[in-house]
Amino acid sequence: MKVIMEKDLLRANTDQAEQNRELFNKNNVSVINMISSPGSGKTTLLEKSADSLRDYNIGVVVGDLYTARDAERIEKAGLHAVQVNTEGMCHLNSSMVARAVKELPLEQLDLLFIENVGNLVCPVNFDLGEHTRVAVLSITEGIDKPSKYPGIFRDAGTTVINKIDLLPHLDFDLDTCINEIKQINTGTNIFVTSTTTKEGLDEWCSWLKSITKGNGQEA
Amino acid sequence: MKVIMEKDLLRANTDQAEQNRELFNKNNVSVINMISSPGSGKTTLLEKSADSLRDYNIGVVVGDLYTARDAERIEKAGLHAVQVNTEGMCHLNSSMVARAVKELPLEQLDLLFIENVGNLVCPVNFDLGEHTRVAVLSITEGIDKPSKYPGIFRDAGTTVINKIDLLPHLDFDLDTCINEIKQINTGTNIFVTSTTTKEGLDEWCSWLKSITKGNGQEA
User: Fold this and answer.
1) What is the ipTM of this complex?
2) Residues contacting A33, CB < 8 A, separation 6+
3) Residue A193 lies in a domain
4) Among B125, B149, B170, the residue to mutate for chain A (most A Cβ within 10 A)
5) B1 found inside a domain
6) What is this structure's pTM?
7) Contact check, Cβ <8 Å, B38/A66
């Protein structure tokens, strides 16, 4: 009987992630791993960013437990989408991503988003081969989430504070939230966005454009 | 070298959960496992229910990755609280609960809430010894969450649709959401609540009172 232990699984995941990153670098595509709670607005953010990014070739790998709803929305927005159904698993791993990107025209892409399963805990330990991570926080979740789920906010090169249009209706202090994030991760970029009012989308999309074809680094 | 496999861990969890349930039954305390995404409003719902439940003895086991913020809030609301820090683990298990309830006056309690780690995926497979599960969904997460994360909504004896005060500001159809939940779980109780306007809190608290000391069954 062969027993595969968790540390072996994590090492195998990291090895495959390195291979993914080499493939992405060879194809000169910048890759973003997007992580958040369920319902933070990742898919809508990508839908609403599509128009500003129409001069670029964008791919999206969408992780979901079972459904293909998000990938259908992404395709309608004109982006290349591949759905990965994890069959109940709580995060994407690098093998799933390796299989998924075979379905995309990698050599044509400028930017690839990997939309992880909605989960603030488990995706943290799984390198997918991305160049950078984006944490998305909906302000409806409360200002305490960065402190309560620090792993994801510590590793994020960029943090998007989303659904800011709801600010007048919530007991939420934006400055306090930004300070909490900066205490955990001094270097993270922060964008404050709403897909309803479009606040902050220009800045977010300008940053996305600046990292295309730069393997995740700003040009 | 002893290798503990995942199925052994799950069986051990279920065995300990049965022991927990026996202990709860012996003490005639009804136990609720509350599961949701981060930021759905579980803690605030308990805070705001405390006043209506002041004639009852209520305990809360609060699961968090690292902080004790929620337990501090629960204590301020006058309930007995114990914090379980999972040190990064994505769900509570039955051993953690067994240790936690040693810190509570179980024999005096009418009702015990176990507030799980904010996560719509991983807590599903871990019986904690509860009598019933409550799924909490914030309407800010979108109507597609029950279909995208069916495990938790399938097992929930009760579903709370929370933050309903934000309905005018969101693209969210309540009837569609309720239909999606009922397609997954025809028998679930549904409460529609707001801790801001107090809508639905009377119905929610009446139901809680009806199950106290009944080992999770309505009197």
Assistant:
1) 0.84
2) A114, A116, A123, A128, A130, A132, A133, A134
3) yes
4) B149
5) no
6) 0.90
7) no
